[in-house]
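testing teh design pipeline on a random one, pls ignore if ur not involved
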C-alpha cells in the first residue's frame, strides 16, 4: 500500500453506536494511536504522529472510543472492556497486517489489552504515561472515604480535573475494570516495548512504568524517564522523543 491522503469514516457497533476514525494508507506496520481517558484523536500526540506517518508514507490509524471526541455514545456508559472492544472492532475492520500500537495514559492500558488480544499482529508497543489498572490503583485506592461511600450509594461521582470539566467516575467503570487488571502478575506480551514517562506526572506515578516493565514477559523493554516531564508529554521535546522512538521501531 502506498501513502496517500487521510480518510475518515465511522464504524457502527452492534448496538448502533458509531465510532469515528481517521486513517492514512502506507507502508506496514500500521501505527495505531490509542488516546487517553476523555481524550480523543485530535490531541497533539495523535496529530503529530499522523503528520509523522504521512511524511514517511507510513500507514496510520487514529480513532475515538465511544463517548469520546466525535464518536457516539455516552462517556458515562464506558468501561475498560467496552473501550477495548471499540479498539478491537476498529482495528479489525480497518487494518490488515502488523501493528505498532501507541497508547497514551488510559490508551496505554487499552493498547496492552489490544496487543494481548492480537499478539500475532502486535509487532511493537509504545506506552506514553501508560496507566494500566488506573481505575483500581489511581482512582479507587486513593479515593477519600466520603467519595467512595457516595460512589457506592449513587453509582457516580464527579472528580475535578485540571484538564477541563469534572470527570464522571462511575461505579461500573471501577467494578468492570477489575476484570482487566494486569499489574498483579506476569503480562504475556513478548513484542518490543518502549515506555515514555514523565517524572513530574501528577496523574500516573512514574514508578508505574517500572512496575509495568517488570511484569512484561518481553525481553526487549526500554523505559525512558523524562525528569521534568508532565502527564501529557506534549511539549516539542516530548513529541520529538516520541517520533524518535517510533522511527527506531519501524523498518528502514
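output:
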Amino acid at each position: 500500500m502506498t501513502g496517500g491522503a487521510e480518510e475518515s469514516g465511522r464504524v457502527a457497533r452492534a448496538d448502533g453506536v458509531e465510532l469515528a476514525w481517521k486513517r492514512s494508507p502506507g507502508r506496514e506496520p500500521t501505527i495505531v494511536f490509542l488516546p487517553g481517558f476523555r481524550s480523543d484523536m485530535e490531541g497533539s500526540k495523535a496529530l503529530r504522529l499522523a503528520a509523522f506517518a504521512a511524511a514517511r508514507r507510513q500507514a496510520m490509524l487514529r480513532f475515538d472510543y465511544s463517548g469520546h471526541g466525535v464518536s457516539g455514545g455516552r462517556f458515562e456508559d464506558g468501561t475498560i472492556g467496552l473501550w477495548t472492544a471499540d479498539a478491537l472492532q476498529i482495528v479489525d475492520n480497518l487494518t490488515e497486517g502488523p501493528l505498532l500500537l501507541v497508547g497514551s495514559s488510559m490508551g496505554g492500558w487499552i493498547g496492552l489489552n489490544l496487543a494481548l488480544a492480537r499478539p500475532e499482529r502486535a509487532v511493537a508497543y509504545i506506552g506514553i504515561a501508560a496507566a494500566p489498572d488506573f481505575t483500581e490503583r489511581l482512582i479507587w485506592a486513593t479515593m477519600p472515604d466520603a467519595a467512595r461511600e457516595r460512589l457506592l450509594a449513587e453509582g457516580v461521582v464527579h472528580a475535578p480535573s485540571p484538564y477541563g470539566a469534572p470527570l464522571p467516575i462511575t461505579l461500573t467503570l471501577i467494578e468492570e475494570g477489575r476484570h482487566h487488571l494486569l499489574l498483579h502478575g506476569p503480562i504475556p506480551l513478548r513484542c518490543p516495548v518502549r515506555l515514555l514517562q514523565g517524572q513530574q506526572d501528577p496523574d500516573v506515578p512514574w514508578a508505574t512504568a517500572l512496575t509495568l516493565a517488570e511484569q512484561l514477559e518481553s525481553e526487549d523493554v526500554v523505559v525512558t524517564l523524562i525528569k521534568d516531564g508532565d502527564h501529557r508529554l506534549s511539549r516539542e521535546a516530548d513529541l520529538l522523543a516520541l517520533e524518535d522512538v517510533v522511527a527506531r521501531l519501524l523498518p528502514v
